[in-house]
Design a protein that fits this description.
5-stranded mixed β-barrel, Rossmann fold, 3 domains, OB fold (Dihydrolipoamide Acetyltransferase, E2P), Ribonucleotide Reductase Protein R1, domain 1, disordered N terminus, binds magnesium ion, 317 residues, 9 helices, single chain, binds zinc ion, binds guanosine-5'-diphosphate
Length: 317
């Protein structure tokens, strides 16, 4: 309906677009407030470049209503493997205040993965009605590490959604979080039901673990954000494995440490308990929350043993 009145009035006859999904060589592209069904111009295919969801493309019209041809793919800023999507701006990490019990170790890992991928993290603490105190404590613990929002998505007024919309404005955001935290509820609110109507179907037809689900970006419903904005669901926590960082790079992934540089007695300090360590001082003064620091040490040990195993393997083969 609004497609006929999409502004531009023919002034730009070669609009750009964003790929929402691609199935069997047919791509659904969002362009200036409407969606177009597109195929690739032959030469792109010959180049061996396959567009993915999230790709920014240039188009030319075929002359047929609602159709276009993809002429070129813009360089990607980043690309996730699962869901297979390019040009992600935000990772909206959703957890519940109480149930399902938040796994903060996993939250830490995902924040690191987002940071190393150049994706801005937003931590949404949903189901605040379950335990408002816990929600506030988690928000305080992560205040330096991510933008933290407290929501009650199932409430009639979807408490907390407005600040989330501000974070999503003009961006492509991937929602991640364990099952049951309220991701579908939030996606449904954001997309005006578009997510649920297709998401529910694809879940029903999902058989076994080999079923491929197409990565699909959904436009945030018109009027909710100022600029076109997109959201995508991710299958559970599979989104990002712990980035392939070395233990010595771990400290660089913590804003609490990076934003408060200091000096340790040992130049190669791992900040896991050595004497005269400035990070210990950050913990003592509350800049680096104690529990998040304890998980930092746990993660450091994990990376350390991973590196040792790799070294062992390397020697025997
Ligand atoms: N108490 C409470 N329940 C919620 C809230 N948000 C979502 N739910 C409920 O939690 C359940 C799981 O939500 P869903 O959106 O399917 O979670 P998903 O598995 O992460 O997609 C549903 O029954 C929702 O109605 C909330 O803020 N508070
Ligand atoms: Mg869901
Ligand atoms: Zn140190």
């Amino acid at each position: 309906m609004s497609a006929d009145t999409a502004d531009g009035g023919g002034a730009r006859n070669v609009p750009g677009g964003t790929i929402l999904k691609g199935v069997g060589g047919l791509y659904t592209v969002y362009s200036e407030g409407r969606t177009l069904e597109c195929r690739l111009r032959g030469s792109i295919r010959l180049d061996g470049r396959t567009p993915v969801t999230g790709d920014n493309v240039t188009l030319s019209f075929t002359g047929r209503e609602g159709e276009a041809v993809i002429d070129a793919i813009a360089p990607r800023r980043n690309q996730l493997v699962r869901p297979k999507v390019a040009n992600v701006d935000n990772m909206v990490l959703v957890i519940a205040s109480a149930s399902p019990a938040p796994d903060l170790f996993l939250v830490d890992k995902l924040l690191i993965a987002a940071r190393t991928a150049g994706i801005r993290p937003v931590l949404v603490i949903n189901k605040a009605d379950q335990d408002a105190g816990a929600a506030a404590r988690i928000a305080a613990e992560y205040a330096s590490a991510a933008t933290c929002l407290i929501t009650r998505a199932a409430d009639k007024d979807a408490h907390g959604l407005a600040p989330l919309l501000t974070e999503l404005d003009g961006a492509a955001s991937v929602l991640a979080g364990q099952s049951g935290v309220g991701k579908s509820t939030i996606l449904n609110l954001l997309t005006g039901g578009a997510f649920m109507s297709t998401g529910a179907i694809s879940e029903k037809t999902q058989r076994g673990r080999h079923t491929t689900r197409h990565a699909e970006l959904f436009p945030v419903a018109e009027g909710l954000t100022e600029r076109p904005s997109f959201v995508i669901d991710s299958p559970g926590f599979s989104l990002l494995e712990l980035a392939d960082i070395g233990m010595r790079e771990l400290a660089d992934c913590y804003p609490e440490i990076v934003d408060h540089p200091g000096v340790c007695r040992f130049q190669d300090c791992s900040h896991t308990g050595e004497p005269d360590c400035f990070v210990t001082e950050l913990v003592r003064t509350g800049v680096f929350p104690q529990e998040r620091y304890e998980r930092y040490i746990k993660l450091y040990r994990e990376l350390e043993s991973r590196e040792k195993n790799r070294y062992k393997k390397g020697k025997t083969t």
